[in-house]
Amino acid sequence: MKQKIIKWHIQGEKKIIHDIKYIMNGSDGLSVILSDFRTNIIQKELDIVINFGFNFIAYRITNEELRAKLYEDLKKDSEFDFKWGFYEVKNSEYVSWLKNESYSTIDTNKIIHYSLFDENYVLDILTTCKPSIQEALL
To answer: Angle CA(77)–CA(98)–CA(56) in degrees, nearest 5?
Structure first.
């Protein structure tokens, strides 16, 4: 079955591509801090803090140029919008890969795959729970 993307509404319907400012895997688990550098310099908008805690299973960050096939596939998907940036992936190839790598020792039915797109990178995160999302001036 082909993977399918669904818009992930972390800020309502606001269509802004955020840049990945930090990825921290520390004492609070995995956190991703997003910032819109085009407006933050002038307007001091709040950053978005997405905290997955210790519920994340895996993550990867890839230069967008190396995900050309993904972008080609996404262009055919009516749900994809280059100005959106936040998606949940159903029937994930990343989850299938992880299941294969672990010799099927994980329950993939409980895994949620999120993809975050900024202007240069694609960040994929596999987790078992929805993250907490808040805004902060960092």
So the answer is: 85
**Percentage, residues of the chain above pLDDT 70:** 80
97's enclosing H/E stretch is helix 93-101
Q: Take residue 48 and report the two structure tokens written for it.
A: 């978005």
Residue the block writes with tokens 């989850």: 95
Q: Say what the pTM is.
A: 0.85
Q: Is the pLDDT of residue 37 over 90?
A: no
Residue 59: predicted pLDDT: 96
Can you read off the two tokens belonging to residue 60? 């990867």
114 neighbors 129 (Cβ within 8 angstroms): no
Among 58-72, 86-100, 121-135, which is the least confidently predicted range? 58-72
d(C-alpha 59, C-alpha 74), whole Å: 20
Beta strands in 64-131 (DSSP E): 86-90, 112-117, 121-127
Q: How far apart are CA 31 and CA 38, in angstroms?
A: 22
Using CB atoms within 10 Å of the CB of residue 115, give its burial: 0 to 12 exposed, 13 to 18 middle, 19+ buried: buried
Radius of gyration for the alpha carbons in the chain, expressed in angstroms and rounded: 15
